[in-house]
Structure formats: structure tokens, C-alpha cells
């Protein structure tokens, strides 16, 4: 099963991994033509009703594979308004070869005749809300025919994620959907087939640019993009400051650092962008937990661990906190060893490197494919998300596992893990935990790659922080 959002991401990743969308469209169109050949003999009349997006584009391709049939193409709207280059190129290809194409500007004038088959390619996953005109009237016209209706990807007007329609929708007999089943199609009264359109498995496994789908809402208020609490510091001061600055650069609106009073001024001194919330003493201990729990409740995500150290009292405090916390937390560094022993309702993203993973009781292997299996089962056992850092980062929630390949050997320098934890914390304010971890790893590696490209090796963790906004930006 794949949702429309994931499908769009995978599609974009396929392009980044060398399989352009136009190639996918060619396979989609071919699959639609196969479905028509399955239900009608050569010579049969086929009416293609196409919209101006890529759903229509798939059908234009199908037409070239149906030369044995009597095909008429009805484009809803003027050719100049076809909204994507690849759909327009496929339309132009039909016109250049003198196929029977008609453009429909007044839906009342849509004369479909009495075809044996209708190919419904008005709208696919790009639909929002109820069908507008001319699509609504065209859908009714299609439903009034006796023809067998083959829908491209999803019956026009139906939401592929929910199976519901906000208004009139095409009543399809068959649906040829692409790559994977869609959650909304199972409930329909139609025969659904899934066509393999040649999207490489890598486009789902490896994190790529398609995963950067923006989550910024149009109506933005302070706090909408997340408030992150970093709990860290004591024996170290740089680590929590790096996590906090990374969280800001990764898009959080407000980031506070809860740290021992002894280091509060030092941490504040790193940046005027930080808000510091000191607790007594020079290291975290159980007496601080009630205060931290109350503070955490005012934040979307807590990043726990950077620079906390591993004193027994500190680790006890980490355990106490996690046992009462029910929100989302990124757990890093010394705090990680506590996770396997705590019983918590919190959603945790644990970010160990190989050594920390072993200390948590996890296993590793030289071969990254073997490692993905080990990480996936350990994540399932823990009941938390794992982001295991390495040349190939492995991210798993025990069910879905992703691999990130961005980054370079320069990133073994100190502090890059703190940057990753903060980045992931900010992203987890607006995405699910597994996706936040995957995108966090991807963006961090991308930031590191950009730094090395500009300056060569000799990378600093702060170089990553500065490059996060660009690393997280979607290429339009
Ligand atoms: N994902 C893939 O791997 C592939 C998908 N293919 C096909 O592409 C469509 C999705 O294409 P897209 O261009 O994004 O959207 P649509 O064609 O569904 O529609 C966009 C078009 O429709 C207008 N619109 C939106 N809502 C409405 C409405 N309620 N009434 C009228 N018009 C509406 C909007 O303005 C746009 O202009 C997918 O389903 C597949 O069929 C690729 O071909 C192969 C790879
Ligand atoms: K359709």
C-alpha cells in the first residue's frame, strides 16, 4: 500500500536515481493499453477522456499502443493548458501523427458516441475536492454509457488515499493503478490491477530528494513549526548548543536548552538564538526530573542526551524522565544505554553509532544489507525508531526501513551527531518519527557533502549547521 504523498516522493526519488518521470509515464500508458486489449478485441471503439495533468498524459501514451483499435481522444480543455511538459509532449506526439484528437471546451458538447471502452484519464492523484467543470459533467456522461470503463490510476474524482469522492466521480469497472496498491481503491466496486512501471526498489529504500516534501503550512504562526527542548550539557557544553542550533536551522520556531546551571552561561554564550533554562548543580540528576517533565510538556519534541555525560545519577534521571514522558523524544549519546531498560509510552528516535548500538544490545554486520535486517529487528524489539549512523545510515521503526547514503568521511569529526539529533528533533515536530529520522540523516549528510565540496575536508560540525537550510530545501 502506498499513499499519494509517498507515491509522489518515490516518483521524485526515481527521477533522482536515473529513471525520469517520462519513462514512468511510458510504462503507465503501456499498462493501460494492455488492460484495454484484455477486455476488447481489435477494432473495438475506445473513447479516451483525458484531463490536463499527468493522468491524461498516461492515456496519451496508451493511445500509441492501441493502433489496432478505433480510438478517439477527448481532451478536456485547450492543449495550451496541459499542465506538465511530459503530458504535453505526449499530446503533441498524438497530434503530429494525426490521431483522432478532439478538444472539449464546453462539457455539454462532449459527444462520446457509443464506445465499447472508455479510458478515464481525467484526474488521478492530483485531484483536490469535488470535480469541477468540465470534469463533473464529463464524469456523468461516462457513467451514463454502457461502455466498460477503465480508470487510469484511480477513478476520476475519487481520493486514492480514502476511496471517497467529494462530489460526482467516475464509476469504473477496472482500475489500472501504478507501482503499488492505494489505500482507497480496495473499497471500490472495481477490479483493480497494479502495474509495475519500473520504479526501482532503491527509490523506496534510499532516502532521496522526494523525501523533502515540505510541511510548512501556509498560515504560519510562531510555534507552528515546532518547539524543541534540548536536555543536555554538564560535562560538555558544545554538544547541546550544536543540537539546539541545528534544530533552529532545521526549521523549529523555538528551541530551549535545559542544562545544569554551572554551564548555562557558557551555552548561552555560543549564540544569542538560544534560550537557556538552567537547573541546579553541575549535572542532571533525578531531583530535576519533575521540573523537566513539566517543561517538556510545553514542547513538541525533546532531544535528550547531548553532552549529559554518564554519571549514574544522570542515567537514573534519564530513565525516570522517559518512564513518565509520553511525547516524542530523540535520544542520543550516553542517554541511549538507558533505553532498552525503560518502560515508556514515549515515541523515541534513538540515534546510536555502531558502538552505541552494541552497548544498547543491538547487533551489527559488515554488509549494509545484513545490517538493515539486524536494525529492523532490533527496532521492532525495542518498539522505537532507530537511526543507526554509519557510511550508510539505517533508519527503521521495525516495520519500514530506509537507508541514507549522503555524507562523507569528513563527518566523523566531533559534533556531527549532535547536529543530527537536533535536526531530527526539529523535523519530528512536523513529521512522523521515522520520516523525521530519515530526512534528518539525509539533510545532515547533504550539508556535510556541500561543506566538503566548498572547502575540502577539515569539516566542522558548525559547517553542517550553517548548510542545513539549503540541504533541506526542495529543488523545484
Ligand atoms: N506517481 C507516479 O509515479 C506516476 C504518476 N503518473 C500519473 O500522474 C497522475 C498524477 O498526475 P498530476 O499531474 O499530479 O495530477 P492529475 O493528472 O491527477 O490532475 C492534475 C490537474 O487536475 C486539476 N484538478 C485538481 N483537482 C481538480 C478538480 N477537483 N476538478 C477539476 N480539476 C482538478 C489540477 O489543477 C491539475 O491541473 C497519477 O495519478 C498517474 O496517473 C505518471 O504518469 C507516471 C508516474
Ligand atoms: K483517472
Globally, the shape reads: elongated
**Total DSSP helices:** 15
* Fraction in beta strands: 15-25%
CATH superfamily of the largest domain: Ribokinase
* Main sheet: strands, sense, barrel: 9 strands, mixed
pLDDT average, as an integer?
96
Number of domains: 2
The name of the CATH architecture of the largest domain is 3-Layer(aba) Sandwich
In this entry the ligands are: ligand LP7C6HRI, potassium ion
User: What is the name of the CATH topology of the largest domain?
Assistant: UDP-N-acetylmuramoyl-L-alanine:D-glutamate ligase
For the termini, the CA-CA separation is 27 Å
Class derived from helix and strand content? alpha/beta
What is the top-level CATH class of the largest domain? Alpha Beta
The parts where pLDDT drops under 50 for at least 5 residues are none
> What gyration radius follows from the Cα positions, in whole Å?
27 Å
Count of extended strands: 16
Protein name: Bifunctional NAD(P)H-hydrate repair enzyme
Keywords: ATP-binding, Isomerase, Kinase, Lyase, Metal-binding, Multifunctional enzyme, NAD, NADP, Nucleotide-binding, Potassium, Transferase
Pfam family, one: YjeF_N
EC number: 4.2.1.136, 5.1.99.6
Amino acid at each position: 500500500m502506498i499513499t499519494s504523498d509517498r507515491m509522489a516522493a518515490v516518483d521524485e526519488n526515481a527521477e533522482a536515481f536515473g529513471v525520469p518521470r517520462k519513462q514512468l509515464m511510458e510504462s503507465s500508458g503501456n499498462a493501460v493499453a494492455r488492460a484495454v486489449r484484455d477486455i476488447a478485441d481489435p477494432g473495438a471503439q475506445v473513447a479516451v477522456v483525458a484531463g490536463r495533468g499527468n493522468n491524461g498524459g498516461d492515456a496519451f501514451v496508451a493511445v500509441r499502443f492501441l493502433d489496432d483499435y478505433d480510438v478517439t481522444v477527448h481532451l478536456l480543455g485547450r492543449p495550451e493548458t496541459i499542465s506538465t511538459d511530459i503530458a504535453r509532449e505526449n499530446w503533441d506526439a498524438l497530434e503530429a501523427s494525426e490521431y483522432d484528437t478532439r478538444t472539449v471546451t464546453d462539457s455539454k458538447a462532449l459527444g462520446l458516441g457509443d464506445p465499447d471502452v472508455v479510458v478515464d484519464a481525467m484526474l488521478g492523484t492530483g485531484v483536490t475536492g469535488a470535480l469541477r467543470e468540465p470534469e463533473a459533467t464529463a464524469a456523468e456522461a461516462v457513467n451514463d454509457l454502457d461502455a466498460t470503463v477503465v480508470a487510469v490510476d484511480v477513478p476520476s474524482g475519487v481520493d486514492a488515499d480514502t476511496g471517497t469522492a467529494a462530489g460526482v466521480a467516475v464509476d469504473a469497472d477496472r482500475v489500472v493503478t501504478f507501482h503499488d496498491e492505494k489505500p482507497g481503491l480496495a473499497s471500490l466496486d472495481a477490479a483493480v490491477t497494479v502495474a509495475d512501471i519500473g520504479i526501482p526498489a532503491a527509490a523506496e529504500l534510499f532516502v532521496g530528494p522526494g523525501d523533502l516534501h515540505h510541511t510548512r503550512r501556509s498560515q504560519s504562526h510562531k510555534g507552528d513549526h515546532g518547539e524543541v527542548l534540548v536536555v543536555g550539557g554538564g560535562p560538555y557544553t558544545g554538544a547541546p548548543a550544536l543540537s539546539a542550533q541545528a534544530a533552529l536551522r532545521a526549521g523549529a520556531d523555538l528551541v530551549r536548552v535545559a542544562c545544569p546551571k554551572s554551564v548555562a552561561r557558557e551555552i548561552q554564550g555560543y549564540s544569542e538564538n538560544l534560550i537557556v533554562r538552567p537547573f541546579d548543580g553541575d549535572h542532571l540528576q533525578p531531583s530535576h526530573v519533575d521540573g523537566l517533565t513539566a517543561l517538556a510538556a510545553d514542547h513538541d519534541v525533546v532531544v535528550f542526551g547531548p553532552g549529559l555525560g554518564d554519571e549514574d545519577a544522570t542515567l537514573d534521571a534519564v530513565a525516570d524522565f522517559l518512564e513518565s514522558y509520553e511525547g516524542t523524544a530523540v535520544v542520543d549519546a550516553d542517554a541511549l544505554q538507558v533505553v532498552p531498560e525503560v518502560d515508556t509510552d514515549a515515541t523515541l528516535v534513538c540515534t546510536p553509532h555502531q558502538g552505541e548500538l552494541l552497548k544498547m544490545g543491538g547487533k551489527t554486520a559488515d554488509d549494509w544489507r545484513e545490517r538493515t535486517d539486524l536494525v529492523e529487528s532490533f527496532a521492532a524489539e525495542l518498539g522505537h525508531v532507530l537511526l543507526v549512523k554509519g557510511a550508510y545510515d539505517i533508519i527503521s521503526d521495525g516495520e519500514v526501513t530506509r537507508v541514507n547514503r549522503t555524507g562523507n568521511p569528513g563527518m566523523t569529526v566531533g559534533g556531527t551527531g549532535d547536529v543530527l539529533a537536533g535536526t531530527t528533533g526539529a523535523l519530528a515536530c512536523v513529521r512522523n518519527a521515522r520520516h523525521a529520522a530519515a530526512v534528518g540523516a539525509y539533510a545532515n549528510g547533504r550539508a556535510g557533502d556541500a561543506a566538503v565540496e566548498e572547502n575540502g575536508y577539515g569539516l566542522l560540525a558548525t559547517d553542517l549547521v550553517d548548510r542545513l537550510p539549503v540541504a533541506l530545501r526542495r529543488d523545484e
